[in-house]
UniProtKB/TrEMBL annotation:
Annotated protein name in UniProt: Fe2OG dioxygenase domain-containing protein
Keywords: Iron, Metal-binding, Oxidoreductase
Classification of source organism: Eukaryota, Viridiplantae, Streptophyta, Embryophyta, Tracheophyta
Stated family: Belongs to the iron/ascorbate-dependent oxidoreductase family.
Entries under PANTHER family matching the protein: OXOGLUTARATE/IRON-DEPENDENT DIOXYGENASE (PTHR47991)
GO molecular function: metal ion binding; oxidoreductase activity, acting on paired donors, with incorporation or reduction of molecular oxygen
Signal sequence range: none
Residue ranges annotated for the Fe2OG dioxygenase domain, each copy included: 195-284
SUPFAM superfamilies associated with the record: Clavaminate synthase-like
Pfam families on file: 2OG-FeII_Oxy, DIOX_N
Length: 344
């Protein structure tokens, strides 16, 4: 896969946005067709995402089916409040650090782990109005030790603690999702235990022309779940519902959880305020089969509606896709011809 690094005379969007005289956004960031944000009115109020209490989920399990399959706010999640606050502070301090410090973790050409701007796959591709730090955190042998930031010094330790706690939460959620869908526990464990996990910290600087850019290009996440934390009470996440871009409000002390490769989302930016977020992604093992649950197919005797791919292949195809507004899941659908040819 070819990667083209941005040809810019600055190292980060954060640095660009600091320029006193910046009144117009450089063309590399200007989106040609940014869809507008939904504006509520008396007849169409702002829809809100479901709020799920982790305690109810553990008690009631299967009654939560519907909400669990989509995006929701998770409250009473059990991750220690002071650890979450410490994590927030450390990430803020990381992005406040001088650019020279952050560039120690700089994304190298052809790689996708490290600190930098949007990774470009095509000439002329637009760049998101954000700087990011991304790395694979699990399985442990896939971690690049030089990438886990040790600046500020306590970031590394806090991130380890936070990842441990959020990992426990992620595995519980995956177990509950399996239970609510009647998938055998062993099957879920075989797919997700010691699976692919990664973390992304994002800094969205204020932007002089916020309506012309996006902070995060519309996409759906790869299979699994994403546990999202907004760090500084500045909203910007939006989800696509029936073609409308709906702003998502983060509740205090809640995570936003996104389940599966289903929901298109994007982040928009603000004229006066910076925004920061921290996402942890929980995906199947690279060698796991991703597709309709084998235990469910056996139990129900139904034909699969989607193809099965090994996770490594799934990810390769996911990241090289041209979806034209569709989720990758849509591309995994089996059509009647596939069934006919497999029965021949
Ligand atoms: O910044 C946000 O709220 C969204 C972040 C996100 O979805 C991602 O990093 O994939």
């Amino acid at each position: 896969m070819a990667f083209f690094q941005p040809l810019l005379n600055h190292e980060s969007v954060q640095e660009l946005a600091k320029q006193d005289n910046l009144t117009t956004v450089p063309h590399q960031y200007v989106q040609d067709h940014r869809e507008p944000t939904f504006v509520p009115n008396d007849t169409s109020p702002l829809p809100s995402i479901p709020v799920i209490d982790m305690n109810d989920l553990i008690m009631e399990g299967s009654n939560m089916d519907l909400q669990l399959k989509h995006l929701h706010s998770l409250v009473n999640h059990g991750v220690d409040e002071s650890l979450v606050d410490q994590m927030k502070n450390e990430v803020v301090r990381f992005f406040e650090a001088p650019i020279e410090e952050k560039l120690r973790y700089k994304l190298k050409g052809g790689e996708y782990e490290g600190y930098g701007q949007t990774i470009l796959h095509a000439q002329g591709q637009k760049i998101d109005w954000a700087d990011r730090f991304f790395m694979i955190t699990n399985p442990i042998h896939r971690r690049k030790p030089n990438l886990l930031p040790d600046f500020p010094p306590s970031l590394r330790i806090t991130l380890e603690k936070y990842m441990g706690e959020v990992q426990k939460l992620g595995m519980s959620l995956l177990g509950l999702i399996g239970r609510s869908l009647d998938i055998e526990k062993e099957e879920m464990m075989k797919i997700f235990e010691d699976g692919m996990q990664s973390v992304r910290m994002t800094y969205y600087p204020p932007c002089p022309q916020p309506d012309l850019v996006v902070g995060l290009t519309p996409h759906s996440d790869a299979a699994g779940i994403t546990i999202l934390l907004q760090l500084n009470n500045v909203q910007g996440l939006q989800v696509n519902k029936d073609g409308l871009w709906i702003p998502v409000t983060f509740l205090p002390h809640a995570f936003v959880v996104n389940v599966g490769d289903i929901l298109q989302h994007r982040a928009v930016v603000n004229a006066s305020k910076e925004r920061l977020s921290l996402a942890m992604f929980f995906n199947p093992k690279l060698e796991a089969d991703v597709g309709p649950s084998k235990s469910l197919l056996t139990k129900t005797g139904k034909l699969p509606l989607y193809k099965t791919l090994v996770m490594e292949q799934y990810l390769k195809q996911f990241f090289s896709r041209k979806l034209n507004g569709k989720t990758f899941l849509h591309k995994m659908k089996i059509n009647n011809q596939d069934h006919a040819s497999s029965s021949n």
